[in-house]
Amino acid sequence: MPFANVNGTRLYYRLEGQPGKPVIVLAHSIGTDHGMWTPQVADLLPHFQILRFDTRGHGASDAPEGEYSVDLLARDVLALADQLNIRTLAFCGLSMGGAIGQWIGVHAPDRLTKLVLANSSPQFLPRSNWENRIKLVEQGGMAAIADLAMQRFFSAETLARNGPYAGSIKSVLLGTNPVGYLGCCAALRDFDFVRSISQIKMPTLVIAGDRDISTPWQGHGEILAGEIPGAQSLHLPAAHLSNLERPRSFSAALFGFLLPQFPGDTLQSGNLVRRSVLGDAHVDRAQSATTDFDRDFQELITRYAWGAIWSRPGLDARTRRLMVLIIMAALGRWEEFSMHVRAGLEHELEPCDLKEALLQLAIYAGVPAANTGFRLAAETTEQFATESKKRE
Q1: In the chain, N or C terminus with fewer CB closer than 10 Å?
Q2: Which pLDDT score is estimated for 215?
Q3: Are strands 49-53 and 9-16 parallel, antiparallel or unpaired?
């Protein structure tokens, strides 16, 4: 398992993604662990190298006795990045993770490219809340505050649905080392950056939850957004763990803030995406057959279909492929359908994906279309399998 010894403490971390891509660090809330970011990892991984870690006192990291400080927690992050030879990074922190991000933004601004502060605050008042929570955990362990924490983490509707994220977070909360939890409670109790946040100069996005009773917009997010020069803000219909209550909206916010809308030259990038989706052989044939008559049309679809739409990060390539297959079949565009079946099999799709897409098509676009789709998909799959065996 990946561990790093930083500041006398062993931290668990996960570094995922392709080396050379921009690095984003995801810092979790108190009472959770790095797994809190699972929905965002799936979305971000094609575009970033992702560093997650368990803050000291949480998850698989050590939980030294005594009170911690946000200064110490932030220095842990910087030391971890140093050990991994990561010089600059984007940082996204939620709640306690946001406090860590504020400290780095003020004291190590050269390390950050962009900063996302979600459901956080420059001061987690009142102090009495933390004193009461510390007493409850000292007397009854993590179970003593579990129900209270869950009511703050999630909205009543989410808890009533008993979804998998809520159940997982409660298990992590109950399994958190009380010693480490108390250390982080002290860090948040004593955190006061109200007079410091105006020193944050890098581009910053503040995300707030409209149902967040732990760090509501008023008195928390509004101060961050108002005092950090040029900060952007976004409200989500969510409680404290907004990345889990609105995972797709949270990821979309990160994409909109961290990635350019149209990266680079859309003709060049579109050509790269087109090749990644349809394969070099198909694109080479299409380009060699281009004439003066249809050259402008080819550039049009390369720029806008592939460079502007297929390049958008909101949907992964597998989802886009399935959508295209269903639409092509519903419209009876069978030549395009067969081409995309083959391209899909060469990349993200498997025969089981084709079957599920065509069953969905049968219900919403009609059995005749699905009947033809199944036949053509089977023929293309068989042909692809035969050709694959010959290449082995």
Answers
A1: C
A2: 97
A3: antiparallel
* Residue 55's pLDDT band (cuts 50, 70, 90): very high
**Degrees to nearest 5, angle at CA 88 with 82 and 94:** 90
SS3 26: strand
- Cβ count near 162 (within 10 Å): 8
Q: Give the integer Cα–Cα distance in Å for 236 and 251.
A: 12
- pTM, entire model: 0.89
- Spell out the domain ranges in the chain: 3-258, 266-391
CA angle 288, 289, 292 (to 5 degrees): 105
Dist. CA 354–CA 358, nearest whole Å: 6
DSSP states along 349-374: --HHHHHHHHHHHHHHH-HHHHHHHH
CATH class of 266-391: mainly alpha
Q: What is the mean pLDDT of the chain?
A: 95
Strands 49-53, 23-27: parallel, antiparallel or unpaired by DSSP? parallel
What CA dihedral angle connects 302, 304, 305 and 310, to 10 degrees?
100
DSSP conformation letters of 62-86: ---SS---HHHHHHHHHHHHHHTT-
